[in-house]
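Hi R.,

Here's the chain you asked about this morning:
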Amino acid sequence: MKITVSFINLEHTPSLDERIQEKSQKLAKYLGGKTHVKWSCYIKDNYHYAEIDLVGPSIECHATGKSQTMYKTIDQAINKLERQLNKKKEIFKNRMHRKGADLVILDPEMAWAEYDEDYIEEAA
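And here is the predicted structure, written out as tokens:
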């Protein structure tokens, strides 16, 4: 996982960098491949903002957090991103399990009838 951090109008401190690295590693449980996590942290109108862009082989997500402190903002943004990843993971699971479940009955009367090879060949 590649992590890129940029700070605008904000001082880069080792503790902030460590916090971002730690929170970004939580995302590894959802993603098992080459991903790029891009953080943008800045201050605007006396609020702290953190934006996360996550780009992977089959996924793209974006989340933003806003609060009075940068630590709280980072937590908000990572929670939003985790919810998005959970939702996408559930959609993928449901789609995977539903793949062969679509059964189409062309003639409802034949659904309960005995198996007839001639009828099946004609329908195909």
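One quick note: The chain has a mean pLDDT of 82.

Cheers,
M.
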